[in-house]
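>> received
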Amino acid sequence: MRTQRDTQRSKVYAAENACSWTQFGQTIPTDQLQTWAYKNVFSRAWYRRRWGNHAPRITTGARGRGLARGSYLIKLGVASRNPWVMCHEIAHTLTPTDAGHGPEFARVYLFLVERVIGKAEAKELREKFREHRVKVAPAKNLLAIRFAPGEAPAAIKPPKPAKKPRRPRNWTPADVRRAAAKVGATVHHDKNPSSGYPVRGLWDLDVIAPEGYEWVSEGWDLVDIDETRTILSTYAYPESAFTGSDRCRELITQIEAGMQETNKSATV
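>> returned
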């Protein structure tokens, strides 16, 4: 937990939102988060020269923006599973826990963006930092920035590449309906959505838990449908990096994760 006031937090967020390349949305597959971080950041020579074997664990579970827990854990919500949020959260793990979004964080963040995403993007972020008066530590201090003693995790081995299925198949909304029927859930399939998403979808899928139950789903933004039920929701759209089959398969995985009985008492 941060012990000092994080005075630059709103300024850093404003600078990020003003950049042309910082759009929320998933571009890194959920099962490849740790592999992506190791391949693009932790195993690179420029990283190891400065921070050695420091490699926090990347997992799901946060909502909206990402979340860094000290120097050892990063949680990413669905919309935050992309390179720029990953750089933001890794920068937190490489600076003292009480530094917040201060000058040391801003320097490491700019460095990671330049090395991982590109020089043009780093230049734009630096300009937005100036416009929003974000203080940045001098470049000469970069090598002196370290995580707090005792917080660094032990060195980790590179993650094993995920095995591809021998016979990949296309998952469909019908597969979702069958999986939902096994646990007593129902599925609403809207082929012409009018839900107000920024990009018009090809379809929406909502899986509604039975009366008195709610979904147990880490990393998903659950929507309360009433006092006793929640829904799992996903959608496919043309510009997505993931196909409708990918979304259906993710949804089936969450259905198989199960439900739990709610503790909310019904009103009379």
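>> The chain has eight helices and nine strands.
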